[in-house]
Amino acid sequence: MLTRKTVNTIFLLGVVVSLAISIFKPIPWPAFALLTASWFFLTLCGSFFIRWNYHMTSLNSNNEINKPQIAITFDDGPHPEYTPKALSLLEKYNAKATFFCIGKNIAKHPELIKEIIRQGHSVGNHTFSHANTFGFFGTSKVTQELNRTNKIVEKLTGLKMTLYRPAFGVTNPSIARAVKNLELNSIGWNVRSLDTTFRNENQVLKRITSKTEEGSIILLHDTSAKSIAVLERLLVFLENRKLESVTVDQLLQIRAYE
User: Fold this and answer.
1) DSSP 159-197
2) Residue 106: pLDDT above 90?
């Protein structure tokens, strides 16, 4: 995939070459506009598609795994109604998962974060506010958000999280600097369920099962009845395919906590 550094270098070279040529032969302004638009489009896509690793490196799967394992991950919890249901299903099918939790939700439901860990699942940082404008925060503000969530979990459990899931999957230079400074591992996915969209339960399940293979990281949310229904059917699918759901840190062979 193209990285921000590569695209910026190509863009600057294109500008320099175009300016050099324009000394001898006028270049129509639409050519410069097209060059700028192409740079903007690639940068915009790179910011929203986490698997591009455009602004920063995220771990999206384990393609080198030699075990029949995958990782189910949940974003946006903990939720007082649906997180307990997810935990119950995971226990029923002897599966482990990773919960990327929003700090303000942890503060409201501290007993749930403790129960997630007690049952052997992993937890990760999914910002404190999950604000719609998070992609516009500067490095300092991003750092404050991540530190605030980490401190809440550390106070409740004694664990200092090292896993981070970008809100909305959005990355940019400010987020990249904050993640690097805090020495966090950014975790992406290669199977996006789209369970928060208009798609119905069958469509979401089909999307997941058609893409899941050894080493996959699946993105779900523990925030709706539809997602819980999908989870149960997914766990049956995995059981039939003899695929084990493990925590994302186990799948990637990294540490979830310091």
Assistant:
1) --B-EE--GGG---HHHHHHHHHTTPEEE--SEE--TTS
2) yes
